[in-house]
Each structure stands twice: as C-alpha cells, then as structure tokens.
Amino acid sequence: MIYMADTANLEELRSLFHHFPLEGVTTNPTILSKGGLQLSKAVPAILEIVGNKMMHMQMISDSAEDILAEAQSYRKRFSLGDNYYVKIPVTREGFRAIQMVKRAGMKVTATAIFTQQQALIAAKAGADYVAPYVNRLDNIVSHGIEVVSDIVNTFARYGLATKVLAASFKNVDQIYRVSMVGCHAVTASADVLNAMVNHPMTDLAVEDFKIDGAAWYDVERV
User: Which residues contact 26 (CB under 8 A, 6 or more apart)?
Assistant: First the structure.
C-alpha cells in the first residue's frame, strides 16, 4: 500500500519525508490554508521537499473548461511532470473535466468521493486515483471502510486500473481497516502517520536492548 502525506505544513513534511517511505503529498484549499502559505509559495517549497514523488493538487474552478485551464497553468508555472496529479471533485462538471484533463496528457485524482457509484463513474472517465473520504463518511453513519471495500472490489471485478486513494482519517485503526480490504493508497495527516509507527511496547523493547547491550556491545564504532 502507498502512503502519502495530507499536509502543506513544511515542517511536518520535512520530518515525514525524512523518516518514512512516503510516495507523495496531497493538498487541497483547506490543507493549504492551515499550512500558512499561498499556492505560489507553497508548491515550490513542497516540491523541494518531495522531489519527484507524487504531487496531488486540488483544482478550485467550477466549469470543466476552467478546471482544464487551471490544471494546465499549474503544470506550466511549476514545471510539473509525470508526478503531477490533478485533483478534481466529482461534480457534474468534474466528471467532464476528468476526461478533458486526461486527453490533455495529465493524470487525475478524482476527489470528494462518498459513494461507490461516484468512484466507478470517475474511473470510467479515466481517473488514475479515486479518493473516498473515510472519516467524513463515518461521521454521517455511512461506514467509510465499507465504501472503500466496495470500490476496491468493483474495480477488481471490472478489471479497472484506477486505484483507490483513501483520505480523511481520524485514527490509525481506520487506516488499518482500509489496508485490510485491499485499498491501494492512503493519505493522512502528520499526527495520524506518526501515530501509526508508535507503540509503548516498542519503546520498552528498545530501552531493554540498550540496558542489556551496554556491557556486551564492545566493538568500537568506525
């Protein structure tokens, strides 16, 4: 499964990409506002951290034509290549824009997905990734994990190459459960990503190793 960082906070990103095997970053207007930098400054700074790994950028235009123009302007301004994924919400115009952006040679992440049918139509339109919102579904008693499972199974049943990029996580258990239903990728906040690798028993084991090894590891370090 692919792990990505769902943040535009540069300090968080530096730490996450320094320590973990992440394969990309996802952004949207809400995340960008929390990061404290406008798009023109945030994107170059993020790219400096992530290098040629995936960059999923949210479009905010309404019409399909404007979404395409927005996607093209970002590609040109920031010199984006194959690592660039155009995030398009699955509105009526969004489904049309997915097809247009794909024909223009760019990759697409269909976002703001809450149903299996939205995901299937986005995949048929050509989306490379679909991003269902797990915790937001759970908050309205719609069982986010089950929706992810349904999407994964639907894509497998129909032989679709589109991958599922689950988003909107509140805790580690949600990520564990989507991984167990075959989700291809997840994007999560720094808090959740850091919590995934922490366990008090691991900390205790490391301390025990240090204590037990102090008198016995006698080889000088080069």
Answer: 4, 5, 6, 56, 87, 109, 131, 165, 167, 187
- How many helices (H) and strands (E) the chain has is answered by 11, 8
Per-residue pLDDT at 87 exceeds 70? yes
CATH class for domain 2-213? alpha beta
Inter-residue contact 173 to 138 (CB < 8 Å): no
Residues 118, 123: Cα–Cα separation, whole Å: 9
Mutual angle of helices 144-157 and 116-125, in 10-degree steps? 40
β-strand partners of 123: none
Strand-strand pairing, 129-132 and 2-5 = unpaired
Mean pLDDT of the chain: 94
Q: Alpha carbon 129 to chain centroid distance?
A: 10
- Active site residue ranges: 87
Q: Is the pTM of this model over 0.85?
A: yes
- Nearest 10 degrees: CA dihedral of 31, 10, 22, 175? -40
What helix, strand, coil percent values describe the chain, rounded to 5? Answer: 50, 20, 30
Q: What pLDDT, in 10s, does the model give residues 5-26?
A: 999 999 999 999 999 999 999 9
pLDDT tens-digit profile of 188-208?
999 999 999 989 999 999 999
| Distance separating the N- and C-terminal Cα atoms of the chain | 37
